[in-house]
Amino acid sequence: MNAMIAADARSDQVVADFIRDGAHLFPEPLDPVAASDLLTKVRATRAFDETLFLSEAEFDADPQYTGVNPRPGRNLLEQFETGLGFVEQAPQVVAAMTTLLGEGYELLNKKLVCGVPAKSIPPWLRERIAGNPVNNLGAYVKPQHRDITYFYGIDFHQDLIDYKEREADFVTLYIYLHPVTRQDAPLFLLKGSHALGGAVFPHDLTRTGPDSWAYRNGGYGETQAGQIILTGAAGFAAMWHACTLHGTQPDEADHERISLRYLLARKPGVSAGIDQVNAALRGPLSLTATRIDLDVAGAAVIKANTVNQA
Ligand SMILES: O=C(O)CCC(=O)C(=O)O
């Protein structure tokens, strides 16, 4: 087989994987040495311990639930642009993205994501967030550390959740910077869950077996989704559709888990593999409301979590 045919075969595989599973796992890790170099630089910027967090009194004096994620001008990755070539220029990543999103695909967002271990979370905070479906800890982190997103687990969700009224024309690319085992808050992903299209969070899921869930999206029907746990080596990379359900449990290890998360979108007007994937969905491609778990200030009003039972 010549190189061109081999590349085409791999591209077909990416679209086929997305149509069937709503996800594609790269068979080989990205450069583990580059991943590890980046990790060393990230770890040198702060202690991933209780000093990340505001005191309870500081938090209560002025609770801020929104605007607490990395943003332009406050995103640690901006310091490490030159260390990101192992992802952004990796031939298999560029080929997969070009197949799915077309030429000139665009970056919507890129950031570091940290799974914080229980021992790094102050007891007052652990008590407050117990049972919440979305434990993004940004609200409780000191402002100077909000250049990374910190999680203590997040229930099964679609990445469309942050994009009200936007079509599912983007994909998530997620890379581990160190080996991730079952104890390191690995991603749980529900294969084929994208097929029911956009759905409002929290999701209607019933466990049907050790690795399977019945998933219903209102009038759009029901599907059986197989659960996969994405453990992997440094450089492990996976990508998924904006409607694919995924989540993490709290980090059970004694150290933080640090990953890279990219959202990449098709350029307006370009047709690409994502059109074939979206044409096969049985539900909506966009939502006017994406979640009902928060009050107007952004505080959790629903205390329930499905992924923690997985
Ligand atoms: O890294 C994590 O723990 C969760 C990441 C995730 O699901 C997301 O950012 O959408």
Summarize the helix and strand pattern as letters: HEHHHHEHEEEEEEEEEEH
Our count of helices gives 7
CATH superfamily: q2cbj1_9rhob like domain
Structural class: alpha+beta
Q: What is the count of distinct domains? A: 1
Q: How is this structure best described in words?
A:
Helix content is 21%, strand content 24%. It has 310 residues and is α+β, with helices and mostly antiparallel strands. It has a single domain, classed as Sandwich (Jelly Rolls), CATH 2.60.120.620. Strands 1, 2, 3, 4, 5, 6, 7, 8, 9, 10, 11 and 12 form a 12-stranded mixed β-sheet that branches. Helix 1 (3-21) packs across helix 5 (91-101) and helix 1 (3-21) runs parallel beside helix 7 (273-279). The protein is globular. Bound molecules: 2-oxoglutaric acid (AKG). 2-oxoglutaric acid binds next to strand 2, strand 4, strand 11 and strand 12.
Helix and strand topology:
Layout: H1 3-21, E1 23-25, H2 32-43, H3 56-61, H4 85-88, H5 91-101, E2 106-115, H6 123-129, E3 134-136, E4 149-157, E5 170-176, E6 187-191, E7 204-209, E8 212-216, E9 222-230, E10 237-241, E11 246-248, E12 257-265, H7 273-279
Helix pairs in contact: 1-5, 1-7
The structure holds 2-oxoglutaric acid.
Provide key terms for this protein:
single chain, 310 residues, alpha+beta, Jelly Rolls, 12-stranded mixed sheet, 7 helices, 12 strands, binds 2-oxoglutaric acid
Short description:
With 310 residues, this protein is of the alpha+beta class. It has 7 helices and 12 strands.
